[in-house]
Design brief:
This protein is of the alpha/beta class. The chain is built from 17 helices and seven strands. The strands form two sheets. The chain has a five-stranded parallel sheet, sandwiched between helices. Strands 6-7 form a two-stranded parallel ribbon. α4 links the parallel β2 and β3.
């Protein structure tokens, strides 16, 4: 079930008796929990009818006691077990899951990992409530997720701006949404967010970032690549060699795959590599610069510099020096 549909029902005051929220992506779990906190009770009802417990400090008996309590001058009670991944007695809650209170909304906030779906507790919870598994967004879908998120808030975003956010923030949806929420305050609704907005308000350089470095190396723009690496050397917070090596490895691995695709049109490449069509077009162009032999050599080179960045076979070179040497060898 889509988390947005769950939140839609919550806003419409359609509550389940149990919400068992678990999985690796904390953003969805927090979004559902926050919606329940906002809509389950009125402000004046919270003092006597809202209880927030923490997994590390709780036991099954006290949790069940809270969940079976009666609301005071309100339609329902709200009991939330936060940091439930630290709670060791989940299976001891089975009796409550099997016969939950009709007047309590019980939320289990189990983050950063999945709960074992074979356990009796989660099966019992599913019979009398909602079990929601929050999956991480795969990296190849991150740009689309950002675009959809921005549109849901009444804005648009350019593909390059989405790529900048994805490259800089990774697939931590909480970080991405927080940064985009800042833009919502500063930028008029209906605006198309571009890389200049990202640079001015989030602090990600539109010209000096890993995305632009990969593009420069892809087109063998030696001057631009050297300029960006020099910027990284003087601004260590911008990125680090591990991120640079990882992104370049992915780039040359994609080029190698394209070389051996029987059909090399843009749509086929986009589907095969799970990248946006405009990126597929850039990759296809890059294959004319880097033949299979050079791609293979560069992949081996990146493995070598990955080890050097971790101190293997390198006792004196700085991160900046390694990056400069690496990009020279990649393009020559």
């Amino acid at each position: 079930m889509d988390y947005k549909l769950i939140i839609k029902d919550i806003k419409a005051k359609k509550f389940e008796k149990i919400y068992f929220l678990h999985g690796e992506e904390a953003y969805y779990i927090d979004a559902i929990t926050d919606a329940i906190l906002e809509h389950a009770l009125e402000d004046h009802e919270r003092d006597f009818n809202q209880t927030i417990l923490y997994g590390k400090d709780s036991d099954a008996l006290s949790i069940i006691s809270e969940a079976k309590g009666y609301p005071m001058m309100a339609e329902r009670r709200l009991v939330i077990l936060k940091e439930a991944q630290d709670f060791k007695g989940m299976e001891d809650l089975i009796p409550y899951f099997e016969t939950p209170s009709e007047q309590t909304v019980f939320v289990i906030n189990y983050k950063y990992k999945k709960y074992d779906s074979r356990k009796k507790s989660i099966k019992a919870a599913a019979k009398n409530g909602i079990v929601y598994k929050a999956e991480k967004v795969p990296e190849y879908k991150l740009v689309d997720w950002i675009s959809a998120f921005v549109q849901s808030n009444g804005y648009r975003i350019t593909p390059k701006a989405s790529m900048l956010l994805a490259e800089f923030l990774g697939n931590d949806l909480s970080k991405i949404s927080n940064e985009l929420d800042k833009l919502n305050i500063l930028i008029e609704k209906g605006t198309t967010i571009n890389e200049i907005h990202i640079e001015e308000n989030i602090g990600i350089s539109k010209d000096y970032n890993v995305f632009e470095l990969v593009n420069a190396i892809s087109t063998r723009d030696i001057t631009k690549a050297n300029t960006i690496v020099d910027y990284f050397d003087h601004n260590p917070k911008a990125t680090n060699i591990v991120v640079v090596v990882g992104n370049l490895f992915n780039h040359f691995a994609k080029l190698m795959k394209i070389h051996f695709l029987p059909n090399k049109n843009r749509d086929t490449i986009a589907n095969s590599l799970r990248v946006p069509p405009f990126v597929a077009g850039q990759l296809l162009t890059a294959t004319k610069t880097y033949n299979p032999k050079k791609c293979a050599a560069n992949i081996a080179l990146l493995h070598e510099y990955d080890l050097k960045s971790k101190g293997v076979g390198n006792s004196s070179f700085t991160s900046g020096q390694l990056m400069k040497e690496l990009i020279y060898r990649l393009m020559h």
